[in-house]
Amino acid sequence: MNAEQDHAPHSRSRPFGAGILDEYRTFLHTALRHPTMVGAATPTSSAVAATVAQVVPSIGEPVVVELGPGTGSLSGAISTRLPAGARHIGVELGEELVEHLRTHQPGMEIVHGDAGDLLVLLDKLGVHRVDAIISSIPWSLLVDDTRLHILRQCTEVLAPHGAFTALSYLSARCSGSGKHFHQQLETTFDEVLTHTTWLNFPPLMHYICRRPI
Ligand SMILES: C[S@@+](CC[C@H](N)C(=O)[O-])C[C@H]1O[C@@H](n2cnc3c(N)ncnc32)[C@H](O)[C@@H]1O
């Protein structure tokens, strides 16, 4: 990120017209080739993005990490809330999605990597404390050990006042792995809240978790 980007207003809203077609095309292309990595057929709606972004601090110089930003459907709403001097880091596994993000979310620092290597990736960026983690990786499709491995790294780097969020389809929450993920969150954090957004297809819920135990 250059100095001009660093101080530029962090506002990038969802694209319209040809932009949104490009976003959907890129998302679908990756989803068809790597269905379990993406775990969704379309990007998340802006209604969800607006709600999820509420955990992002709008004062100070926060560091916010997005795990699995995809085409950036949550990133614009997050960036809009961030004050000057904030850092907005995205860790994304899909190569094509990384290229898309680098073009369309210039205020973000995009890391092409695996959330399973979170601490190493953040260390390379000189980041050892994070104020908010917004995760939309397909948690319920991960095996238990992988899920726990990523979750532990999130809690290790999260500031004491920080918030961790995880998105999940309502349907996934009722599956065996969805229930197990919920239990893992309950035993990992002192506070676990849920919020459902119906203006998404399919309806989507997200966990808001604070104070790792
Ligand atoms: C359900 S999509 C969400 C994309 C976007 N945030 C949204 O809400 O529309 C999941 C995203 O997580 C990425 N992903 C999956 N596993 C990952 C991992 N281990 N590390 C980083 N990104 C991952 C996928 O490539 C995909 O972009």
CATH topology: Rossmann fold
Mean pLDDT score, rounded?
A: 91
Order of helices and strands: HHHHEHEHEHEHEHHEE
* Largest sheet properties: 7 strands, mixed
Number of separate domains:
1
Instruction: Please report the first level of CATH classification, the CATH class.
Output: Alpha Beta
Strand content range? 15-25%
Percent of residues in helical segments? 40-55%
Number of strands: 7
Specify the overall morphology: globular
Low-confidence stretches: 1-11
Per CATH, the architecture is 3-Layer(aba) Sandwich
Number of H/I helices: 10
Give the end-to-end Cα distance, rounded to a whole number of Å.
Answer: 35 Å
In CATH, what is the homologous superfamily?
A: Vaccinia Virus protein VP39
Rg calc: 16 Å
Spatial ordering of strands, largest sheet? 3-2-1-4-5-7-6
The kinds of small molecule bound in this structure are:
S-adenosylmethionine
Q: Could you explain the architecture of this structure?
A:
- This protein is an alpha/beta fold and 213 residues long.
- The protein has one domain (3-212): Rossmann fold.
- Helices cover 41% and strands 24% of the residues.
- The chain is built from ten helices and seven strands.
- It has a seven-stranded mixed β-sheet, sandwiched between helices.
- Helix 5 links the parallel strand 1 (63-67) and strand 2.
- Helix 4 runs parallel beside helix 5 (75-81) and helix 8 (144-157) packs parallel to helix 10 (176-188).
- It starts with a helix and ends with a strand.
- It binds S-adenosylmethionine.
- S-adenosylmethionine (SAM) is lined by residues 37-40, 43-44, 67-70, 73-74, 91-94, 97, 114-116, 136-138.
